[in-house]
Amino acid sequence: MGNYYCLVAGLPDVAFDGSKVNYSIDSFREELYPQLTKQDAALVDLFFLSFDNKNLLTLLSYGFEVELERLGCFTRDELAAIITSAKEGDVRSKDVPSYIYDFLVFYFENEENGGYIWSDILSAHYYEYAMSVSNKFLSSWFEYNLNVNNILIALIARKYKLNVAECVVGNNEVAEALRTSGARDFGLSNEIDYFEALVRLCENDRLHEREHQIDEMRWRWLDDSSVFNYFTVEKLYVFLQKLDIIERWSKMDAERGMERYNELIDGLKSGAVFTDSLN
Fold it and tell me: Does residue 275 lie within any of the structural domains?
């Protein structure tokens, strides 16, 4: 693992106050990757693979000519080749993350069967893969996000008297508790120190305000968990995640927030859980 004194020292200050920065994820990526060790680049890939997940589902749904996100680790042609290879039963290339290939194998074995929510299945594979990395900070970050999203989904599902077990993604202890517990707090209030905060958030029907507060929680987690990381890849990853939060809020407004809330509820009722925030 490398130390990135000059790179970290040159990062601009960013604050969760709605202010814009003259730095984009794209430009930071161009500056970042050439300076990373191979091991650290693989860790940063975990962030950009979330865009590949969206692109993969888009290609499977709409074909290989559709427009894709630019920020993934793989080009459209590369993803198309990965899909074709998995469909034909070829051995996975070492350059392809195992979770992508495992998902595609499952997809092609079961695509004719109904009842699968492919975004959920891909998210479960992705989070299991990300949480298995040896870097403690990144493993914890992905588990934190998985837990936050699962708890929120479970609370909303219970509020609307829907099947919680069908809405939860992943296989960690929190996911299992959400699927199986009938307790008011799913048996988690003494295990998850942010559980009650999420309960209070779910009582707020103003989705725009709620999402803002959730991102504030994520921002604080990033700061608190990286306080002793000074010039390491963890600090660079924190900056990348903060850029992502800032960029998303620069594009979001209250009207779109309410649309997302209605989409979420309609999706839960139809069994199509939205997992686009699971990154």
Answer: no
